[in-house]
Design brief:
Order of helices and strands: HEEEEEHEHEHHEHEH
Keywords: Transferase
Strand order of the largest sheet: 7-6-8-9
Number of domains: 2
Pfam family, one: Rhodanese
GO molecular function, one term: thiosulfate-cyanide sulfurtransferase activity
Strand content: 15-25%
Radius of gyration: 18 Å
InterPro entries: Rhodanese-like_dom, Rhodanese-like_dom_sf, Thiosulphate_STrfase_CS
Domain Rhodanese: 69-171
Length: 172
């Protein structure tokens, strides 16, 4: 069965979501509703793929806190180094500025470890991106997806939201 151009467009722009997939405690979900609302496309070889064009790729503060506690993710802060020094960072996060993300995620594992003092994440590792307010982290998420990373999310609340929960006395 040949795909229509609309189906191909949906396929190219969609994020693959498997109903049973989990990022250790965070379920992939579709804002279109229950699984019955998911679009099903059939490949030319007869396979079925479930797609959701608006899959949730973000985490709440509570979800991020649980994942950090379980040590099941690599949290990458994509702000510039000066921002980390000026504002602070989420404990346990690795700083890789946004303008380095594409190159960093394609580095040789030895070079990555030398530059960032951390093991290079594999394409199946659970990555979460954060920044100050969630804009750059979404860009980093899209970059990682385009490079073949499969379990990626972003924290749209960023440092600003984290700080408001963790250090409420600092509210401005």
């Amino acid at each position: 069965m040949a795909m229509t151009s609309r189906a191909l467009l949906l396929l190219r722009s969609a994020v693959r979501v498997d109903r049973s997939s989990r990022v250790r405690g965070v379920s992939a979900s579709c804002s279109l509703g229950p699984p019955a609302a998911w679009r099903e496309l059939r490949s030319s070889k007869g396979g079925h793929h479930h797609f959701c064009t608006t899959a949730s790729q973000s985490l709440t503060y509570e979800e991020l806190k649980k994942l950090l506690h379980s040590k099941s993710i690599l949290l990458i802060d994509v702000r510039d180094a000066w921002e980390i020094l000026e504002y602070g960072k989420i404990p346990g996060s690795l700083n890789i500025p946004l303008d380095e993300i594409g190159q960093a995620l394609q580095m040789d594992s030895e070079d990555f470890k030398e530059k960032y003092q951390q093991e290079m994440p594999s394409k199946s590792d659970n990555l979460v991106f954060s920044c100050l307010k969630g804009v750059r982290s979404k860009t980093a998420l899209n970059t990682a997806l385009s490079l073949g990373y499969k379990s990626v999310l972003h924290y749209p609340g960023g440092w600003k939201e984290w700080e408001s929960y963790e250090y409420p006395e600092k509210k401005q």
